[in-house]
Design a protein that fits this description.
200 residues; mainly alpha; two-stranded antiparallel sheet; 8 helices; 5 strands; 6% strand
């Protein structure tokens, strides 16, 4: 993993634009009751390369129904935040993917650089190897990959299946694929978002 890549502010701006596109789609769909969705974003304090992040990472995009008697919150999927995890999704994906093939010295250096507790790494591996494979998201998407992706090698092998000139290209595609697991909302269609078309 390259620290220069993880500290590239342009990549994080791209992820925010993808989140904005997903959120606009969600807002246009409206509430299940038929009401209009108003912005009700909530604060986040993600860990990772804070110096590369602008103020857009201080909150997660979310909505609340404007209809009296409903007021239901609707939080769109996100490529920036992996559910309630405090680290950015890109950190969770890359640090776990790079566990395979790392020497003990490099693994320790990665943990120290990102200030990740060893227990946190264990939880992330459990997420990828036990929880994610059971998700509706993966059950729906796994058939796209032939030969089948080995669960024991997630997310690294999955990252390697995407086509792109750079790591950021492949990573943004992976984050779009898994973003349905970041929310209970079910209205998001992965195929409608193409990270390649969102680059400036």
């Amino acid at each position: 993993m390259c620290q220069c890549f993880l500290s590239d502010a342009r990549f994080y701006r791209l992820l925010f634009r993808i989140d904005q596109s997903i959120a606009e789609e969600e807002q246009q769909a409206g509430c299940l009751c038929g009401g209009v969705l108003h912005s009700a974003r909530y604060p986040r304090k993600p860990r990772g390369f804070r110096l590369a992040l602008d103020e857009s990472y201080d909150y997660r995009l979310s909505f609340c129904c404007a209809r009296d008697g409903c007021r239901r919150r609707r939080t769109p999927p996100s490529v920036r935040f992996l559910g309630r995890k405090v680290y950015l999704s890109v950190i969770v994906v890359l640090s776990t993917a790079l566990q395979h093939g790392l020497t003990e010295k490099r693994r320790q250096g990665l943990i120290e650089m990102l200030d990740i507790a060893p227990q946190t790494m264990v939880r992330w591996r459990r997420f990828w190897h036990e929880l994610f494979p059971q998700s509706r998201c993966w059950q729906a998407e796994r058939g796209r990959f032939m030969p089948p992706v080995e669960i024991a090698k997630l997310p690294g092998e999955l990252l390697g299946r995407f086509i792109g000139e750079t790591l950021s290209d492949r990573l943004s595609q992976l984050l779009v694929l898994i973003c349905p697991v970041t929310t209970s909302s079910s209205g998001f269609l992965r195929a409608e978002i193409d990270p390649q078309k969102m680059r400036s």
